Structure formats: structure tokens, C-alpha cells
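Fig. S4 source data, part A: sequence.
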Amino acid sequence: MKDVRRKVRRAQTIVPFGVGGIIDIRGESFVAADIRSWAANGERVESPRLATKLGVQGFRSAPVIPSGKAAYATRIGPTYVRFPKWLFCPRCRKMVLWRQNLEQWGKQAVCGNCSGKPQLAPMRFIQVCREGHMADIDWRRWAHSRSEGHDQRQCRVYKLRFVATPQSSGLEALRVVCVACRAGRNLAGISQKNVLKQIGMECTGSHPWQSVSDEADPCEETPQAVQRGASNVYFPITHSALDIPAPQGVSEEEEMAQKVFDHHMWPDFKSSANGPASAVFKEYIARDCGVPQEFIETLRRRHAEEAASMPSAEDPDDDLSIAEWAAFSAPESVAGSRTFSVRRTHLGVRHDDPESMQALDARISGIVVADRVREVRALEGFSRYEPNVGDGEEGAGGRVVSVNTQHRAKWLPAIETYGEGIFISVDEQRLSRWEALPSVRDWTRRIERNLDASFKADRLRGKSGPKLLPRFVMLHTLAHHFIRQLSYDSGYNAASLRERVYARSHAPGSELPPQAGIFIYTAAGDAEGTLGGLVRQGRPPNLIETLIRLLESAQWCSQDPLCADSTGRSLANLNRAACHACTLLPETCCEIDNSLLDRTLLIGDGEVTGFFREVVQAALEESAEAVDLP
């Protein structure tokens, strides 16, 4: 019997096949429905810090289907609906508008006219708009858009064929033809802007998974025809946070307060002051946390007073980075837990080691290896045709569509992953002196001018802070080269490693501590985590050798001198000396889309002094002395 089960890994329900994403499986095409289709028994994922940032009550992950229990998936798993609805038979070329009543569990869509019942193939093109809507192209209207006679213009028959003519090539060879009136049109020019508007097509204002009872949104955006596998069909918006336990030595009262803050009803209780539901929320929180109701009321008053005294709300991304930076900077103060186990180590440099190692050790202030770390990744929504680059739904570009298209999402789909990593912090005094150099400031200011003019400015500012510091570009570039070198030394490929850069600036007058470090980690869907390859590379003498090698390799690129002398690369010229041959990484590795990278700030050139320039020069001199001259 042919196995026609469709399988999706749990991690893929967030990216790339999360809500609104299209998946191709064995010649069939489906789209993930919104979270209203998720069963109520989805597994809860705890991440209070991330939930507070996103303003939701919690997270859920898709349940794992036991082996051999595929039929059970319809009752507990996320729903994927067939899209596009227009299919065609590869043999007789007849087009079929598929209906939900034709769907049969575990069976593919097949042609009922041809012998052998060949599988129907989905049409290649669909329509999307900047409001996030997606629908089938009205192929009947397309076929009749160049009608000549009266009968063709008045034809309303939905009997179409998708034929391929051998007389031409490309999209001109593909033609949609009406069986009744013989009207037809090829696909040449279908991807041109506003071509659908020219023939009278409008946005449907709906999503493929919506039922007949769901009211369509009034949409005035012009629909655009795109290939269903194009990269601009789906831009997921994800957030992630590391699970950081509470510091050691906290009082019993602080522990009780943290337990209340982590309760899923706490956000509703804060917002319902003097409301009719306030007493109910208070009673449930007190019962679940085992604390008096007066204590909960005191916490709410304290929170209201602190919020009123603050001049402006802190950036949520800033809040997440503060806790993570504090945990890695002082691992002794963090209580070890099942989800977060870190310990301090060193480079292992001795007084008689080469000068390059001594210089590198002077610039590194701390090394922490994470034997076990837990990360939660959540899907907030998505946009289409253009990525959303502002704050929330009102930002520039495509509108953000929530994972719940009918109501405000109280919870978000998420996954928890376990792994290991290496944290490296840079000496703050040396870094501050280097940032004060006029050549370094001027060089970074040029990049920041391009950042201000970029369509990604708001999103990138969320990571770099209100001002782009030289340390951010330098440490971000170091993280990329570190991942590339670890892919050779640790046994992990580059796509399985991820970065977190701690170098953001703070608002003027802020008392938050400066950040200067990177965390390279790997996270897998298995609850057991990974196998220790990164932790081994974080121990002496492996780490110092890895760092020296990555700095040496950062000096050259196969695209030099074009890469080294570049004054602007990538979208909006946000990169300098960085290209695919030397610095860029797979999209899953980088948290800011391979932007704000420059090898020059890392190793220097004739105009700018790199932070690790002395290390590189010492390593080169030592290599030259080691060569036996005749």
C-alpha cells in the first residue's frame, strides 16, 4: 500500500510551515491554518519573560504524533488545508477547482477522467497582497481577459484546461484555455506589477483556511500574482528567549512575587484594576500560588507606581537581553537548573605562550560554557509580499497578520529546544578606548546613516539599540566568523548554530550596564539536547586555537579586493567588507538577517584600526618566524 501520510516536524510548525506558510509534500500543496484549528490539548510551553514581552498568557506547541498513529493527528494536530484550490491533471490538462467535500482523509487529489487516476498538480501562481491576504487567481477571468468575440466575453463556464505548447518556451508556452468558448491566454507577464488589477481582479480579503461563516476583510490593496514557492509569499515574525532561572540568594518574598508574576492570569489581573473580574483573578492566583490575596494586591499597586514613575516604557528586547547578559556575566549568581547550566572557564593562556595568545587573552574578559540551555521560539504572525519593518501592524511594508485571524491571540504557537553553547565577553575598558578612536566612530557613522535610510531601520534598532555602536558591528561580525570556524572544529554544520549578540546601546541617562559579548549556541528539538561538541570547543586549549584561526581567516576573502574595499553591500548597503565567501551565514543562524557586518572593524585596514588588529599582526609575525628560510 502506498504511504500517503503527510509529516511535519514540530519545529517546522513555527518556521517555515507555521500559520500562513505553504508546504509542498509529494506533489501536493497545503497551507497552515490559524491557531483556531489547534486542539485545546496542545502542550504548554513555559516562558514567562517572553510571554510578558509579547503580551500573551502563554504558549503551546504542536503535540507529537506517536509512531503508527497518523490517523490520530486529525484530532490533536494543527490543520493544513489544500491550497491552491485550482489543480490540473498532468495527463489530460483539465483544470479542477477543488472543493472541501471532495477531500478524503489520507488520499491524494486525483483526476477522475484519466485511466489510472493520476495525481492532480497545484497551479504554480497565486495572488497575495500587502494586507496579508492570499487566494487563488481567478483563472476563468484570466482566460477570458483577452476575449475577442461576444460569446467569449459573455462566457461564464468554469471548464478550463492548462495546456503547454511546444512552439514557444518559458511562460509563453503555458496557456489557460476555456473549453466552452476557446478563449485563452498564456502566462507571459503574469508576474508584472498590477497585471491582475488591469483585468479587473480584486483582493478577496480572506485567507485560504477561512470558512464560509468567516467574514472577509474589506481590502483595497492591489493583489499581485506570485509563484506559490516564492520567498515573498511568507515572512514569519518570530521571537525567542533563553530560559534564565532566578538568581541565587533571593528572599522568600521575592520568590513568592516571582511565582505570582509567572502566573498566566497575572497580565489580566494587572489590566483589570477596579474591574468586576479583578476579584476572580486575584482569588485564582492566590489559590494557585499559595499566597495571601493582600500580597497580590500589594504587588499590583507596586507595579502601577513603578509604571507611573517611569518616563517611558523600556524596550521589551532590552529587557530580555538584560537578564541574559546578567546571567552570562555572573554565572555564579544564577542557580543551576534542569534548563540552564553554565560554568565559567578560561582560555588557558600561560605567561610563556606566544604574543598573539597573550594579546587575545587581554581582550577577552570572560568565557562561559553552557552545558545545557533552553530556548523558546514563538510565532507572533506573518506578512506577505513585503516584510513588515515597523512596530506592530501599523509598521511600514506588509501588514502583520496575527496567528489568530479573528480575535486577539491569547496564546502563541511555540517550541522549546535544548542545546549547548559558548559565551564570550570582551574587555570593556579596551573596547571603550577602541570605540573612542575617531576613525572607528566615523566608519560606524557611515553605516548608521545607511541604517537610518533603510526600510529595516526599526527592526534592526530593536537589536542594536537607539544608537549603532561600533562594538555591535564588530561583535556581530565576530559571531559570524566564530560560527563559520566552529563548523569546521566542533562537528556541527553552520546552519545548526545560532547567535545572540549582546552589544546594544541604551537610552541617555539609563543606568543599565553596558554589554559586550556574544553567545553561540545550538538548539535541537530533542529534549536531551545536543552532544557536547560546543562545550568541548569552549575549553582550553581548543577555544584559543579556534579564535586565532578565525581571525587569521577573516583577513582574506576570495572576493578581495572587491569585498575588502566595499563601501556598501547587501540590501540598503548595510554591510561593508562582508560577503557570502567570507562572512554571511544561513538565515537560521543570524538574528538580524545578515545585516550590519564588516570585517574591517574586526581586523582593521589602512584607514581603520580593527579591535583585534594587534592579535592578527602578532600571529602573522609568529607564523613568519616559524618558516625555515633557506
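Fig. S4 source data, part B ends here. Residues 132 and 384 are 5 Å apart (CA to CA).
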